[in-house]
Amino acid sequence: MSARTGAVLRSHGPGQQLKAEEVEQVAGPGETLVEMRLAAVTQADRSVLAGKQPTQPFMPGSEGVGVAVTSASLAAGTPVLIRGEGVGVTRQGLWGRYAVVPDAAVHRLPAELDAVVALALLTPALTAHTAVRRVAGVLGGETVVVTGVTSLLGRLCAAMARAAGARKVIGLAWVGEAVDAAAPLVDQIVRVDELGQVGRELPWCDAAIDTVGGPVTSGVLGQITPGGRIAILGYRAGEFTTIDLHQLIGRDLRVLPVNLQRTVLEPGAVSEALAAVAPVQVRPDVELVTADRAGDALDRIAPDRRVFLDLTGF
């Protein structure tokens, strides 16, 4: 067993009131002791604090990065990312100088990504991984279409399809939309007009990853080869689409929803997802907040901005 004493933020009841305390963190069999660097402040953390925590007092924090102190599988000092296995949800979380987590929740940080970018990309990278690898099941040699390819999620899906071995990746972008960031990730850009009509130059494809929905979904379905499939994970262009049932049945197409809440991550998924999206040159909008301002950080969560606690000064 290994132990370290350091400050943590703990809640003693429902609500966002957090108290800093000195706590000894003891790692037992099957657990890793991590010296924390950053922890994400997420909507899930706020939801956990708003309800009744599984134990009192409770330390929140379900996603973070740090370095391994003691681990059965990693050398001391190895940069790691922590997520999963109930950390910060059903068991104590990461908002402290040190954290004790299950070995299965510890994932090696890819050398190509710094800690801030890796933590910021974690959720969209896992979304792209689930859509491309698990739901759509993209295989080597296939042609894949990604709609909404200029968005962060679209670019990550394109990178994921390439990492899965796709022979050709085609990106769909709106007319007039800048595609400079997405162009290096795809072989071809096809434009979609303001009504959601897909350009006629869209070739046949084996699979599609649809991040936009609406009429774009229908247009892409018309270009999927027999036995192909479309994984749908967004509907920014509309919640409704038209499906030609004759086409769906006649060509044996599959329409597959991507639901992360019902998806259990496979071992290695986090490291694989981050490694696959490392080529995407992106610096997400991140706000760093010191640990003593954790209460304020919970109120600063926004869809277009990630908020992280800086735990190095704890």
In CATH terms, what is the fold-level topology of the largest domain?
Quinone Oxidoreductase, Chain A, domain 1
Order of helices and strands: EEEHEEEEHEHEEEHEHEHEHE
CATH class of the largest domain: Alpha Beta
Kindly estimate the percentage of residues that lie in beta strands according to DSSP: 25-35%
The largest pleated sheet is described as: 7 strands, mixed
Give me the secondary-structure category: alpha/beta
Question: Number of folding domains?
Answer: 2
CATH H-tier superfamily of the largest domain: Medium-chain alcohol dehydrogenases, catalytic domain
Large-scale geometry:
elongated
Number of helices: 7
Over the alpha carbons, how many angstroms does the gyration radius reach? 21 Å
**Number of extended strands:** 15
**Helicity level:** 10-25%
Mean pLDDT: 89
In the CATH hierarchy, what is the architecture of the largest domain at level 2?
Alpha-Beta Complex
| C-alpha termini separation | 23 Å
Report low-confidence residues grouped into runs of 5 or more.
none
